[in-house]
Task: inverse folding
């Protein structure tokens, strides 16, 4: 399967600051990447679809000005949580899908804690 | 609205005690059903993809099956290292990269 590298694995930031999370597709060029959020004991919820060279598509209820997504190359997508607040504390995971209608492969996830 | 329900929420087994996890789904036009394993603090690890009713896939002690309304993940003679949360996801729709809808998972604990 595809190899996805996500960095950092853990980050603690102060309320009001911004945090950037990187997601790299290591073994194939991904025109589309996906960002999920997972709260404790809850399912993965898709936040946005990242498209190389164009604007990301956000799911309903996800603030695009708060969660900035940049997909500048075929192997790298970044998620920036701006003006983070404690309620943004969660597990953020990116994924890629080599082909449509096939399985997704996930990064290791980033545990964000906002204090 | 597409929905995925997994049961039980948690399952405790003795080593060697076989069991099944259930994933019930409601989608308009299933394009694929996916099983993942997730260890604490890690991203999901892909296990199986099923596309049509009657399809079965096997890997070591795990076997996934699919009907028109649900999927089962059978675990035969589990070992403690099988302890994890097992997630089910479905994809509906016919065009483009349709999103995956996940269930909340079954937390499996296998005791030695």
Result:
């Amino acid at each position: 399967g595809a190899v996805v590298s996500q960095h950092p694995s853990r980050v603690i930031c102060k309320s009001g600051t911004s945090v950037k999370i990187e997601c790299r597709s290591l073994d194939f060029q991904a025109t589309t990447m996906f960002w999920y959020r997972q709260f404790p004991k809850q399912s993965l919820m898709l936040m946005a679809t990242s498209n190389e060279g164009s604007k990301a598509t956000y799911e309903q209820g996800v603030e695009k000005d708060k969660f900035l997504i940049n997909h500048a190359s075929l192997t790298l997508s970044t998620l920036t949580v701006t003006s983070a607040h404690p309620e943004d504390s969660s597990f953020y995971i990116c994924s890629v899908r080599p082909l449509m209608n096939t399985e997704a492969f996930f990064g290791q996830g980033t545990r964000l804690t906002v204090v | 609205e597409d929905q995925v329900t997994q049961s039980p929420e948690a399952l405790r087994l003795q080593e060697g005690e076989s069991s099944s996890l259930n994933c019930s789904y409601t989608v308009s036009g299933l394009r694929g059903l996916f099983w993942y394993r997730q260890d604490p603090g890690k991203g999901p690890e892909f296990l199986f993809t099923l596309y049509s009713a009657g399809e079965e896939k096997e890997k070591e002690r795990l076997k996934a099956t699919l009907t028109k309304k649900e999927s089962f993940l059978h675990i035969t003679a589990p070992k403690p290292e099988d302890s994890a949360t097992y997630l089910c996801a479905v994809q509906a729709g016919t065009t483009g990269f349709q999103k995956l809808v996940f269930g909340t998972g079954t937390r499996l604990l296998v005791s030695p």
Remarks:
- Chain A has a mean pLDDT of 93.
